[in-house]
TrEMBL record:
SUPFAM superfamilies xrefs: Radical SAM enzymes (SSF102114)
Protein name: Radical SAM core domain-containing protein
Gene3D superfamilies tied to this protein: Aldolase class I
Keywords of this entry: 4Fe-4S, Iron, Iron-sulfur, Metal-binding, Oxidoreductase, S-adenosyl-L-methionine
Cofactor(s) needed for function: [4Fe-4S] cluster
Domain of life (superkingdom): Bacteria
PANTHER family documented for this protein: PQQA PEPTIDE CYCLASE, RADICAL SAM DOMAIN PROTEIN
Cited InterPro entries: 4Fe4S-binding_SPASM_dom, Aldolase_TIM, MoaA_NifB_PqqE_Fe-S-bd_CS, Radical_SAM_PqqE_MftC-like, rSAM, rSAM_sf
Keyword Metal-binding part of the UniProt annotation: yes
Domain annotation Radical SAM core: ranges: 19-239
GO molecular function annotations of the record: 4 iron, 4 sulfur cluster binding; metal ion binding; oxidoreductase activity
Source species: Pseudoalteromonas luteoviolacea CPMOR-1
Length: 359
């Protein structure tokens, strides 16, 4: 994962400087349909008449730059009927990965994934042991664990370097169990990496509903954690555990380094409902990563459509006036819609680590 992040940063800087034009990472929201109904999910799971067809996705793949990396997501990406067709087209030329709840995995699908040299990361969302927060039934959980074991078996047989990544949404419900979840992910599931994701601070981020650009300036109100002190204590225990673990763990947003030898700092600002954009560094993320929604709308991080790939060429959207306006805005300073985005970084000139949480 660190190799990917280093490459991503290098390419991002080249795009930002104008040396390259097209983004590096493309998130394909293959479908908004899902086999689960998680209470904290922000997506609309109704079937859509305007959803991208298989041919629509294949046309997008043809337009990707040579250095592109593709992330398959949803909804649940494995619910897309031609999932293998799209993965096969992408993996012929580009690195790719998938974020899934894992319940639709099968030995056949795992064999298919591992047969693709360019399929680099299988990310499975697990928020507690048993995924009870996602209303996963015991039999479903047992099957998932069995499929993960099969993944490791076939990975070894094929000498694959595909990474198993576990993603955990940080909730008040699992606050006291973060270390236990991490240990289980490492010791039982064999995770190579584990990412802890805080709840986003604005409904505009990575939404499947498009909004007007002016809305990203409107005051945002992030959900706050009742047990935030417990969360920090648990993350510190994770950091201590990782001093003797082969698993790389991350926090998103990066409020601390879970691989560091130093204790994590006070980070009360991340639990603030309110957001002060000028306390943070300007963002290059819109240059490096874009989402293509289930309906074909392309957007960077905040769900403002920059154009639709079903009727406009990818490069024309990326270099268009609307996208240029968006990037110009975030190149100066962040906006309210960036509240608790996973890519925000505090301004190093300001000491906000110990600042009092805004009310």
């Amino acid at each position: 994962m660190s190799a990917f992040h280093n490459k991503h940063e290098l390419i991002t800087n080249k795009i930002f400087s104008g040396e390259l034009i097209m983004p590096h990472r493309y998130v394909f929201v293959l479908t908004n349909l899902c086999n689960l109904d998680c209470s904290f999910c922000f997506q609309d799971r109704d079937r859509r008449d305007d959803a991208m067809t298989t041919d629509d996705w294949l046309k997008v793949v043809e337009q990707l730059p040579e250095y592109a990396r593709v992330t398959f997501t949803g909804g649940e990406p494995l619910a897309f009927k031609d999932f293998e067709v799209i993965v096969n087209a992408v993996a012929k030329k580009h690195d790719c990965n998938m974020i899934t709840n894992g319940l639709l995995l099968s030995e056949k699908k795992i064999d298919f994934i591992l047969s693709k040299k360019n399929f680099k990361v299988l990310s499975i969302s697990i928020d507690d042991i048993g995924n009870l927060n996602r209303d996963v039934k015991p039999r479903q959980w047992e099957k998932l664990v069995s499929q993960i074991n099969y993944f490791h078996k076939r990975k070894a047989e094929l000498n694959s370097d595909c990474v198993l990544d576990i993603k955990t949404v940080v909730l008040d419900k699992n606050a006291k169990d973060l270390l236990a979840i991490h240990r289980y992910s490492v010791e039982t599931l064999g995770a190579n990496t584990h990412a802890f994701q805080f709840l986003k601070g604005s409904h505009l981020q990575h939404s499947d509903k498009m909004h007007d650009m002016v809305e990203m300036y409107a005051t945002s109100h992030a959900p706050t954690y009742e047990h935030f002190d417990v969360i920090l204590e648990q993350l510190e225990l994770v950091r201590q555990y990782n001093q003797h673990s082969q698993c790389n763990a991350f926090v998103h947003p990066k409020i601390c380094d879970l691989s560091s030898a130093d204790p994590i700092p006070k980070v009360s600002y991340i639990n603030s409902e309110r957001f002060r954009p000028k306390d943070f560094q300007p963002c290059k993320f819109p240059w490096s990563s874009v989402h293509i929604n289930v309906d074909g709308n392309l957007f960077p991080c905040i769900a403002v459509s920059m154009g639709n790939v079903k009727n406009t060429a990818l490069e024309d959207i990326v270099t268009g006036e609307l996208f240029t306006e968006f990037k110009d805005a975030l190149s100066k300073h962040l906006v309210e819609g960036c509240n608790r985005c996973g890519w925000i970084r505090p301004n190093p000139k300001l000491n906000i680590i110990d600042s009092i949480t805004l009310k």
